Amino acid sequence: MQHLYGLFAVAEAAYRIPLKYEDMQSAMRTLRRLKIVGKAAKRDRRPKLAELDALMEETYTRSVRSNASPLHGIVAFAISSSRRLSEITGLLWEDVNYADKKVLVRNMKHPGQKKGNDVWVLLSDEALQIIMSMPKVDRRIFPYDPDSLSTAFTRLVGLFDETNDLHFHDLRHESISRAFEKGWSAAEVRMISGHRSWSALEIYTNLEKIGDQLEDWKWWDFVFKPEPPERIDALKRQLVRQRLVKKIIRKSPENPWPQMPTHLFHKKYSLMQILRSPF
Question: What is the pLDDT of residues 184-211, one digit of tens each?
Answer without folding.
Answer: 888 888 999 988 777 777 666 556 667 7
